[in-house]
């Protein structure tokens, strides 16, 4: 699947979620606490959190996993990891993930202008050889069926070591899960990437303040 086609697919996604976000007045105290924490950290409650809050135990499990994943992913350069994850989200067609990922890259101080040329990553001088290899791996892993080769994995191991290879594979795999879940439930971009005011997940039901 080409990246241009993936970008076009984002526009075809529904603009209304297929499962309504759980508003604060219907949420448990624990979920409301998570809403407040998320709003302080990101500026607004991420819509996936508000939708997956219908299953509180899974939300807690996911939150613990995401925290451990973030803390444990320290082998790869940030740009290598984030570009691979960003490409994965666009390939799947999760506009929310693309939007949120752009915010994370901005907060990491990465060059956002490069994203305008990511379709041409294979030839663009704006990307390093390591970044190109990681994006190509994300593309190969996310294609259905995957097109990963022995040579590709061996090259990545030479570049990043065994731990780096595992970290890259894990990050791409987890982003496939996030993106496919969000796309399936019709969760679309919320406005995080622009750095401006984000859309509130619910239209009524009180405030998280």
UniProtKB/TrEMBL annotation:
<protein>
    <recommendedName>
        <fullName>Transposase fusion protein</fullName>
    </recommendedName>
</protein>
<dbReference type="InterPro" id="IPR029032">
    <property type="entry name" value="AhpD-like"/>
</dbReference>
<feature type="region of interest" description="Disordered">
    <location>
        <begin position="1"/>
        <end position="24"/>
    </location>
</feature>
<feature type="compositionally biased region" description="Basic and acidic residues">
    <location>
        <begin position="9"/>
        <end position="19"/>
    </location>
</feature>
């Amino acid at each position: 699947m080409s990246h241009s086609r993936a970008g076009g697919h984002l526009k075809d996604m529904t603009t209304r979620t297929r499962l309504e976000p759980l508003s604060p007045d219907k949420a448990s105290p624990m979920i409301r606490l998570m809403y407040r924490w998320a709003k302080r950290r990101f500026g607004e409650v991420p819509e996936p959190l508000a939708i997956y809050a219908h299953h509180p135990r899974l939300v807690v499990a996911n939150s613990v996993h995401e925290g451990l994943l973030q803390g444990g992913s320290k082998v790869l350069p940030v740009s290598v990891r984030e570009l691979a994850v960003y490409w994965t989200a666009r390939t799947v067609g999760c506009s929310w993930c693309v939007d949120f990922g752009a915010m994370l890259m901005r907060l990491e101080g990465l060059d956002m202008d490069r994203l305008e040329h990511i379709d041409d990553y294979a030839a663009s001088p704006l990307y390093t050889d390591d970044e190109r290899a990681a994006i190509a791996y994300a593309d190969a892993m996310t294609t259905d069926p995957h097109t990963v080769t022995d040579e590709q994995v061996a090259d990545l191991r030479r570049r990043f070591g065994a731990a780096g290879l595992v970290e890259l594979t894990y990050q791409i795999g987890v982003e496939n899960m996030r993106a496919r879940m969000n796309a399936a439930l019709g969760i679309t971009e919320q406005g995080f990437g622009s750095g401006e005011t984000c859309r509130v997940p619910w239209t009524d039901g009180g405030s998280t303040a």
